Amino acid sequence: MKRLIVIPLLAGVFLLSAFIFPKKQNVFAEEELDVKFRIQICAYENHVPYNKVEAMRKLGKVMVVKKDGWAYYYSKEYATEAAAITQVPFYISAGFEDAHEVAEVNNQFYSVEEYHKMLKDKEEKESTIHIYK
């Protein structure tokens, strides 16, 4: 009879300990970067010229992000940076002279140079040796 009471009681204590004493996490561990490469087609502060609207309709699906009073227009996502870079001439020939590749990292947009700097900083941080006492 005592076993019937003690076993569920121990099981309950064991389950509760997972919530009371969570596992230690590495403070220096960082989450993986969620990266998508796109082409920033154009950006406008006010209205978009009619000829640009027509050109974007011909391109197909265009993503619009509004930030700080500006509307930024982005292409579909590309799997690699190289794939995005090879498509820039297509967008320029479609009438978007300022088209350039960008990296979308965790829903924030960065120039490719900024993205490479982020990668370099992340690699340096990961290669740092931490000594615990």
Query: From the coordinates shown, what is the CATH architecture of the domain at 35-126?
Result: 2-Layer Sandwich
The residue fraction in helices comes out at 40-55%
Structural class: alpha+beta
Written as H for each helix and E for each strand, in order along the chain, the element string is: HEHEEHEEH
Instruction: Please give the radius of gyration in angstroms.
Output: 25 Å
**Number of strand elements:** 5
Structure description:
This protein has a five-stranded antiparallel sheet with strand order 2-3-1-4-5. With 133 residues, it is α+β, with helices and mostly antiparallel strands. The chain is built from four helices and five strands, in the order H-E-H-E-E-H-E-E-H. The radius of gyration is 25 Å and the shape is elongated. Helices cover 44% and strands 23% of the residues. The chain has a domain of 92 residues: 2-Layer Sandwich (Alpha-Beta Plaits), CATH 3.30.70.1070.
